[in-house]
Amino acid sequence: MMMSDMAIPAAADPAVLAERLPAAEIDRLGALIRRVPVLTQLLDASPDYTMILNRTRQIVFANRALRRLHGGVRRDCTAGLRPGEALACVNSVETPGGCGVSACCLDCGALKAILASQGGRPAVEEWRMIRDCACEALDLRAFTSPLRYQGESYVVVAAVDISSEKRREALERCFMHDVANTVSGICLAAEQLGDGRPGEAQEAAATVLRGSRRLIDEVSAQRDLMAAEDGKLVARRAPFAARELLEEVAAFYRGQNWARGRQIRLAAGWPKAVLVSDRSLVRRVLGNMLKNALEACAPGDAVTLGFCLRGEDGEFSVHNPQVMPPEVKRQVFRRSFSTKGKGRGLGTYGMKLLTERYLLGRMRFDSAPGKGTTFRACLPRSPR
């Protein structure tokens, strides 16, 4: 066995990336690998998702951990699939070419690592995805190495689940960062409350109240998100008025730092509508939508909240005038991706998770020059 010296395929050419070998050739290549039982036994003993790919990135051997994740234990249950297809990545079914061909795949860490190893060098990349099974997020670290055996070129891929690591990083960097900033503001306001004149004391008291409410909201948001990812969150449905909820969310966020220098508007002409859903979770989703819009805006911009009826559903929307770059649009809703710095980025992922898994709705967005960016949460008006 020795390192491959094969050139990296043209990643921008969908025809090259979509090419596949027939089943008979997959079986032949897999048989070559299984002639080395010590190799397959070692791979089966690994708890990580490990696979061996041919030159068209199709699986010719998958270890036991990957076969079980895919839904079977037979050695050929993943044969011929590509990595994203075996792991049920939502982007792997966007185009007829499958895994590695859609626009979203341009930012896939696994594809980058595999192409690098097809060029003859080992690689390590983070691999983020949403699985096509109840909006399940999966964060992996992909280790790839080139392999040449019996005149054939392969790539060995070992994918380590780092979801728990990412949750911990998010809590340490994102949650703790927000909590520290909030507590600092509370402490400063408390000092002013003790030293200032009556008028200043009244203003400081209001600041303490806003800061305290924000701290409670941050803690509740993280608790809900962790419970949602663990499958332990319970939606409690009851009737509530759509407009009343949006007015409440707008009033709360007008007093936050994210809104400083920016306007929060309510669209005109709303229909009167009552939804039967979990008001607290819907408020959490709307809060994330509004917070993300405010953070994306430039000073002087306005964010607009709206609501409309679409058949049996009600659609909440939050619009801001800024436009997302293509590389950001392709990665929205991935848990560990953010434009706000390393360790951030739970907002869009969290609101999609809550909307689609627990509120039984649909989260989408559009962003285009001249139109700005609008996130939409479409929810059933009554339980289905």
3D architecture notes:
The structure is a single chain. It is built from twelve helices and twelve strands. The protein folds into three domains: 14-161, Beta-Lactamase (2-Layer Sandwich); 163-233; 235-384, Histidine kinase-like ATPase, C-terminal domain (Heat Shock Protein 90). The protein has helices at residues 14-18, 23-34, 37-45, 64-70, 83-86, 109-118, 163-195, 198-229, 242-254, 279-296, 326-329, 347-358, and strands spanning 49-53, 59-62, 123-131, 136-149, 152-161, 238-241, 263-266, 274-277, 302-310, 313-320, 362-368, 372-380. Residues 1-11 and 341-345 have low confidence and may be disordered. A five-stranded antiparallel β-sheet has the order 2-1-5-4-3, sandwiched between helices.
Strand order of the largest sheet: 2-1-5-4-3
Helix percent reads: 40-55%
* Order of SSEs: HHHEEHHHEEEHHEHEEHEEHHEE
Distance between the first and last residues' Cα:
57 Å
Number of strands: 12
Given the structure, what is the number of helices?
A: 12
Secondary-structure blueprint:
Layout: H1 14-18, H2 23-34, H3 37-45, E1 49-53, E2 59-62, H4 64-70, H5 83-86, H6 109-118, E3 123-131, E4 136-149, E5 152-161, H7 163-195, H8 198-229, E6 238-241, H9 242-254, E7 263-266, E8 274-277, H10 279-296, E9 302-310, E10 313-320, H11 326-329, H12 347-358, E11 362-368, E12 372-380
Parallel strand pairs: 7-9
Antiparallel strand pairs: 1-2, 1-5, 3-4, 4-5, 6-8, 9-10, 10-12, 11-12
